[in-house]
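not sure who needs this but someone in the group chat was asking about Gfo/Idh/MocA family oxidoreductase from Agromyces tropicus so here u go. i didnt clean anything up, its just raw.
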Amino acid sequence: MADLRIGLIGLGMMGRHHARVIREVDGFELVAVADAMGDPHGVAGELPLGGDVDALIDAGVDAAVVAVPTFLHEEIALRLADAGVHTLIEKPITSDSAAGERVVEAFRSRGLVGAVGHIERFNPALLSLRARIAAGELGEVFQIATRRQGPFPARIADVGVVKDLATHDIDLTAWLAQSPYVSVYARTTARSGREHEDMVAVTGQLSNGVITNHLVNWLSPMKERVTVVTGEGGAFVADTLTGDLTFHENGTIDTEWDSVATFRGVSEGSVVRYAIAKREPLRVEHEAFRDAILGRDSHVVTLEQGLATLRVAEAVLESARENRVVAVPPQ
């Protein structure tokens, strides 16, 4: 079978990685690239540099990757849908949920594969964690807490930290628990003089009763990407920067050292750091996109799932504006 002809629009920091991986994935051929702002990282190589999405369509692509600023997602995605092109859109799906609904309907009505680049789902630590939760290794899940912080990325200008960064945590949390959000309460602040918020703290609840907590900011000098899932059997800690997964087991051995037992709370059991295969998440994401196009079993993040995540992000921003708990619309 001939390779799928892939086009890429958006050749910035993320686009250059998409170009590299597309060229590495079996079954893909990068045949067209475009960016109205040029090619700062030399992504095009031997390919001509197009200026807009029509350059991809005119090249006869089967599928496309959209890695442009968020405010352009809807326009480009709808143009690709009209042309019958399967599309992977970098997260968030669009700037707002109304636009997201239009994109979802455009691809659904044409029977096209549409996906959103929530890359954390393809991180080896979280893939292993999801499988272990599903296998019952933790027992009942009580809480999922995430920390995602680091310096401000200059490439982001059109959305704040909630839609750019916290959408990772919203998506991965609902996916790990296999349950949607029902409510959120959030506080945001803007300390760096930019138009949008650069720090958020969110408390939420999922429909299955799991409580969540997310600390996200662009104001920290240290970079941190940590997910902690606590349940009956102990706690899993996933570090998605390193791809490490550690399990802290609830202990079954009583201690006679009363002061230590009081300090540590729940009795401490074994601590295990798992040896897991560490494949590049972006490559795994592209393989899932390829398999979805070919009709194979795939764990691609659908447009509908991307829209659900965006709706939660909008509820977070509404909660912060109005200083109240906000119910998340049913999915």
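also The longest helix spans residues 303-322. if thats useful
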